[in-house]
Amino acid sequence: MCRWMITGAAGMLGRELAHVLAMDPSAEVTTLARADLDITDAEACVRTVAGHDIVINAAGYTQVDRAEQEEAAATAVNGNGARNLADACAVHGAVMVHVSTDYVFSGEASQPYAEDEPTAPANAYGRSKLVGEEAVLRRLPRSGYVVRTAWLYGEHGPNFVATMLRLAAETETVDVVDDEYGQPTWAYTLAQQVTKLGRAALAGQAPPGRYHCTASGQATWYELASAVFELSGLDAGRVRPTTTEKFPRPATRPSYSVLGHERWIAAGLPASDHWRVQLADALARPGFKALQPLSSGGDPFVRRGATG
To answer: Which terminus of the chain is less hemmed in, N or C, by CB atoms within 10 Å?
Structure first.
């Protein structure tokens, strides 16, 4: 029996991780939401990690725009909290898998970022996550794993795909930015992949360090929105392309967030499906199907602008 611990278990990824591991009869799983464990409390982390073989840290401060005014608060969770968990894992000899982000890169590249590419976060959220990455790998040089992902969506919690389905029922047209590139990644698929990495780590089959785990392929937000409409049986022509400058936000977003998967493949781990395949599978799930309008022609549209 392998003893797993999941932090951030009430979040979008955390809930999917719990769901995936619940199907594994060899896994004994402890799920911890924020109310169960404050990862900024170092002593609480040491007490709670005791008895576990592997910790997956899916907890985090995720308010990207708010972090511009609350960088210390973001770093307390994303940086210091990750360090506390890593220290606790070091005390108890546990493996740690820490979930991070594409935002640690500048977003100025023109080809997929390799795992060892120099980092240069463009916003406070990215800086806070980088602090956590560095702490985990420094504290756990032989048992620390960082998994960077991007453009995550799922049935649980607010996300871009759910927003597009809601807007499809409320607006005639939706304007979405077409000059930011990334890899839309379904939280359920990411959970499956992260647990595979965890098992490989426990078996000594995957070296510690940084890994990238996103869907394959790439898309703009406009292309993702168009696919959401199309795969839901709606008129994709209702989605209109626009530019990032039309939607200014407090935090700078990377214009190019495509991640390479070389280290993932080199470890013998299975590649993730293309983002359109993941999206089609996700939209067939009950949580998303409940949001989908019945048809393009039968919705009570109100014409108004919508953000991308």
So the answer is: N
- 283, 286, 290, 296: CA torsion to nearest 10: 30
Considering the domain boundaries, does residue 268 fall inside one?
no
Contact (Cβ atoms closer than 8 angstroms) between residue 198 and residue 97: yes
> Does 21 reside within a domain?
yes
96: domain CATH number is 3.40.50.720
| Residue whose entry in the numeric block shows the structure tokens 């799922």 | 154
- pLDDT at position 247 is 86
Intervals of the chain under pLDDT 50: 295-308
pLDDT tens per residue, range 124-144: 999 999 999 999 999 999 999
Using DSSP's 3-state secondary structure scheme, residue 107 falls into: coil
Residue 181 among the catalytic residues: no
User: Residue 27 belongs to what domain range?
Assistant: 2-159+183-212
Q: Has this prediction a pTM greater than 0.85?
A: yes
Residue 255 in domain: no
Listing DSSP states for 210-262 in one string gives: EEE---BS-EEHHHHHHHHHHHTTS-GGGEEEE-GGGS--SSPPPSB--B--H
Count the domains in the chain.
Answer: 1
Three-state SS at 7 = strand
293 found inside a domain: no
Catalytic residue among 61, 125, 181, 256: 125
